[in-house]
Amino acid sequence: MPKTDWSRDDSPRGAVLGLTLALALAPACGERRAPELDLLAEFGPEWVTAETRRLDLGAAEARAALGAGWSIDERDQRGGSFVWAVARRAELDFTLLDRRPAERLLRVRARGARAQRVGVQVNGRAAGELELTQRMGQHSLPLPAALLRSGANRLALLFAELVSVPGDNRALAAAVDWVGFEPLEARSDPAARLDADSRTLELSAPVRVEFVLPSGGAQTLELELGKVEGAPELRASHGAARRRWAAAGHAVYRWLLPAGGSNPAGAVLGLEVLGRGRLELRGARVLGARRRAAPAGRVVLIGIDGLDWDLADRAIDRGAMPNLAALRARGAWASLESVEPTMSIVIWTTIATGRTPQEHGIGGWTAAGERLQTGGGRRVRAIWELASAAGLRCDVVNYWATWPAAPLRGRMVSDLFRKLLFSPAVEDTVYPPGLMRRLLPLLARDPERERAGWQRSGQLRPPADRARAFSASRSFQELFDNAEGYQAAEELSTEVALQLLRQGGSDLTLVLLRAVDVGIHLRWHFLPPELLRAAVQAAQQGALARELEDRLDDVLTDELEPILRATDHTLGRLVEAAGPGANIVVVSDHGFGFTRFGYTHHRNDRPPPGVLVLAGPSAAPGALERASVYDLLPTLARLLGLPLSRELRGRPLESALRGAALPPARFVRTYETSPLTPSQQRPDAAAEQNALEELRALGYIQ
């Protein structure tokens, strides 16, 4: 029989815990057991955080650890990989899990562009110096325990000078092969491994595994240990509360989890194995867990920024968007009324929350002056947080205002993840952090692959010989010059979404595609100059004839056809990956119209409407009389089996749904059962500046 632990709860509340009965002592016949959440059934490698032992800086796995001051990975003549430090200060992150980290020995294999002494800082405090030569070699420096902390640490290398190298337009400091932290021992076996046959999770100290639990109810964590080697310590955390045990073999531990928690998507439960040794986790479950919502099948929302039915219908008539046409033919569809201000970040947040810009707090592209607006400014819960708290699994890819990526039951790939194509210094772009290891291969810029992708999907940028000087503005020139970067970012978001969809397991997936919006902002400048001049003049006089407007739209469709074909091709791939039983929601935030300023989504009369299509087992085919961006969250809530808040401005589009396939509607007074804590986190300064420059190039900000 497993051993029993009768120790006390050492959380701040100090409540006494009654531990534990063996799992063999099943409930009496006929007794109803509380709902149970099997954590091992939810385990995935992306939920694991292991201590940093050695970072091979030229490998894709190290990309997430690199901060400011590094170039991309390169190869030497022998095929070895390294990374150049290209600034006087080069930073990287490493992780320690011991509650009180002991002294480490920093080991660096590097060579200087010129022989020089290099200062070393850890967490902003001086640790000493390394002396580099122009030959590749190993250098070491003790890191005092007083400089180290449990969790994330930052190492900074401070170079005295940079060197200009013939044939290279960069100033270089040093080529770094790898960085190691000893006395951590090299280990060939993984820090965490799930034996699929025995359903046993093997954990080697030190390691952390993280889960997000559904909200609500009195919950008890129950852990069953098998074989234990060495003397590892087992520690659990739930919000601010902590619990620890000296792990013993064949024992069962229980912990009554404290209520509350500040994460709106569900409380974060962490399991850590510290010290020395390894253990087998034969059972990990939460008793009394909230029963998960009952969705009407998988729901996949595919956002196409900037698309309207005028443009889509012209493309469909040309055979350029067959996948969108097929979805509309078998689903419910409507023009989607938008809101002011017609800024994508504002409208997509309204779609995700069902609330007005004044209520949800995202009122524009910038906040607090000229700072980049992030998801930390949102004041109400989004659909993925509501679904996660109800026990559903959610995947979110490239959705506006989702950085920094916050915990949820699923995976978050934030809107700043695409910036890693150009800058390694953006942190917290994905959740869980371990997901980065699986996505890093997609960040490796492969020119051949990208060229193939652009040929398949049509480039955003027109050929150089068509670059008329209709707009001589610097922002337009930046948009033109960076068009291939936007294309690479679109390809990246697509591949990430496809990878997550094909892995399965999610109840709700949201992915946002931006190529149509960026393409319109760029390519309308390349319409025939005489046509543009006539249209601008007519618009200035308030007399833009329908015939002239139709001619403009036809020519714009000519310009955009490669991009529309590309987006429709992506739509088809996403629908196929979602599977035949999925409910597909295609939505855009706004359309475009011609004004005296050219094609814009800012109109004097009303915001140009977007598109809405709902197709799948729960859809009732046909045109809808009316739909608004405020109706999206209530409709998604109905599909997912979530209650409807009486604070919502919109209503479920019941005429678009097959009522018999859905559970009865339930209502709650509010979703905001506890206040959200605004995040004060800021992106890296260079990455933030890059994002602001992109917004200026698109004309979103001045």
Feature tags:
702 residues, 40 strands, alpha+beta, globular
Could you list the spans in which at least 5 consecutive residues all have pLDDT below 50? 1-34, 184-188, 465-472
Strand content: 25-35%
Q: What overall geometry do the principal axes of the alpha carbons give?
A: globular
Radius of gyration: 27 Å
Number-wise, the strands total 40
Q: How far apart are the termini?
A: 70 Å
In terms of quaternary structure, what is this? single chain
**Average pLDDT level:** 84
User: What class would the helix/strand composition place it in?
Assistant: alpha+beta
Count every helix, treating DSSP H or I runs of 4 or more residues as helices: 14
Helical fraction equals 10-25%
The major β-sheet equals:
10 strands, mixed
Care to describe what's here?
The chain has about 700 residues and is α+β, with helices and mostly antiparallel strands. Helix content is about 25%, strand content about 30%. The chain contains 14 helices and 40 strands. Strands 25, 26, 29, 30, 31, 32, 33, 36, 37 and 38 form a 10-stranded mixed sheet that branches. Strands 1, 2, 16, 17, 19, 22 and 24 form a 7-stranded mixed sheet that branches. Strands 4, 5, 6, 8, 11 and 15 form a 6-stranded antiparallel sheet that branches. A hairpin with a 2-residue loop joins strand 20 (about 235-240) and strand 21 (about 240-245). The protein starts with a strand and ends in a 5-residue tail after the last helix. Residues about 1-35, about 185-190 and about 465-470 have low confidence and may be disordered.
